[in-house]
């Protein structure tokens, strides 16, 4: 397993986009043929998931009751994130997050994060992912429609602690959505069809903590069960999402005068989870008893 955690690099605030477009407003469209250019970046941290089990020095397994957020049906438990062999993986194995149900209504799944182990600010973060495959039995036999799955690859701000060492349950600017959220990839076929989408969240204003979100684009599938890469290029001035190295077409820009609209100037950590049902997951296929969400790797690049 390659690990470059906390490697000190000569990261510069001048981390640049491949595009030469001039920022004139909060959002703008890059060139249609813009390709990812990492020539000014180098690998900073990664997990290739090539060990025999989840690296708990890197990832925390969350344990939650069902319904805690977004009306999600599943609970989260340890032991549902495993390393399995896969011939199509870059290193022969992948991380698999598994959701299971004995009756189709009560679900247990996995949510892992790097919150207490790895946080970073600015760079390019990418994962190679395959959308969840659904089965009609807990052992995984017949593949069926995966309506109701809601996998995600996203980031939240590093937690801030008060003078007594207690968590504030928020980032630099306060609790969600004030300190922001970066959703690199979400997929919810019951409510959004066969596509993935990327979104960022922040407060409406400094005095109004209502969620204000901006789409960074989406991508419709020909086949949801093929491997694709999902990335986010994040600098001090812009946020842009990528699919297989191609820009999704929208760049969100920092206007430089409003932290409520740009709370993305602090450390964030990485989250991978497989939710079931809920606000965006929608109705779950009543025949489903198992869903498997595979991740080949997660990599973070920093400016040279």
Structure write-up:
The protein is mainly β and 304 residues long. It has two helices and 19 strands. It has helices at 189-192, 278-281, and strands at residues 27-28, 41-47, 60-61, 75-76, 81-85, 93-100, 108-109, 111-113, 123-135, 143-144, 149-157, 181-187, 195-203, 211-220, 228-234, 238-243, 246-253, 268-276, 290-303. The longest helix is centred in the middle third of the chain and has 4 residues, at 189-192. The two termini are 23 Å apart. The model is unreliable at 1-25 (pLDDT under 50).
Low-confidence stretches: 1-25
What spatial form do the alpha-carbon principal axes imply?
globular
**Major sheet:** 10 strands, antiparallel
- Give helix % range: under 10%
The rounded Rg comes to 19 Å
Indicate the structural class.
mainly beta
On the 0-100 scale, what is the average pLDDT? Answer: 90
What is the strand tally? 19
Total helical segments: 2
Strand percentage, roughly?
35-45%
Question: Terminal Cα separation, in Å?
Answer: 23 Å
- H/E series, N to C? EEEEEEEEEEEEHEEEEEEHE
What would you say about this model in short?
By secondary structure, the chain is mainly beta. Helices cover 3% and strands 41% of the residues.
Which features characterize this protein?
seven-stranded antiparallel β-sheet, disordered N terminus, mainly beta, globular, 19 strands, ten-stranded antiparallel β-sheet, single chain, 304 residues
Record the SSE blueprint.
Blueprint lengths: L26 E2 L12 E7 L12 E2 L13 E2 L4 E5 L7 E8 L7 E2 L1 E3 L9 E13 L7 E2 L4 E9 L23 E7 L1 H4 L2 E9 L7 E10 L7 E7 L3 E6 L2 E8 L14 E9 L1 H4 L8 E14 L1
Parallel strand pairs: 4-7
Antiparallel strand pairs: 1-17, 2-19, 3-8, 5-6, 6-19, 8-18, 9-10, 9-15, 9-19, 11-12, 11-18, 12-13, 13-14, 15-16, 16-17
């Amino acid at each position: 397993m390659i690990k470059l955690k906390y490697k000190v690099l000569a990261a510069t605030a001048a981390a640049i986009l491949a595009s030469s477009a001039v920022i004139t407003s909060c959002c703008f469209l890059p060139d249609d043929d813009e390709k990812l250019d990492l020539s000014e970046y180098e690998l900073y941290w990664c997990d290739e998931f090539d060990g025999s089990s989840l690296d708990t020095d890197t990832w925390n397994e969350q344990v939650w009751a069902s319904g805690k957020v977004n009306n999600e049906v599943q609970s989260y438990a340890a032991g549902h994130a495993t390393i399995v062999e896969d011939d199509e993986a870059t290193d022969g194995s992948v991380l698999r997050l598994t959701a299971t149900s004995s009756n189709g209504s009560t679900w247990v799944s996995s949510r892992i994060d790097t919150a207490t182990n790895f946080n970073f600010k600015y760079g390019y973060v990418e994962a190679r992912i395959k959308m969840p495959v659904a089965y009609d039995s807990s052992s995984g036999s017949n593949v069926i429609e995966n309506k109701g799955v809601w996998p995600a690859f996203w980031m939240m701000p590093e937690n801030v602690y008060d003078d007594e060492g207690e968590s504030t349950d928020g980032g630099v600017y306060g609790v969600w959505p004030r300190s922001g959220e970066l959703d690199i990839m979400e997929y919810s076929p019951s409510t959004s069809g066969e596509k993935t989408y990327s979104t960022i969240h922040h407060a409406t204003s400094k005095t109004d903590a209502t969620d204000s979100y901006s789409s960074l684009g989406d991508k419709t599938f020909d086949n949801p069960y093929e491997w694709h890469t999902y990335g986010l290029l994040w600098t001090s001035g812009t946020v842009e999402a990528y699919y297989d190295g191609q820009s999704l077409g929208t760049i969100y820009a920092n206007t430089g005068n409003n932290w409520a609209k740009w709370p993305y100037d602090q450390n964030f950590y990485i989250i991978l989870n497989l939710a079931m049902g809920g606000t965006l997951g929608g109705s779950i296929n009543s025949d489903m008893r198992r869903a498997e969400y595979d991740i080949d790797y997660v990599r973070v690049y920093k400016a040279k």
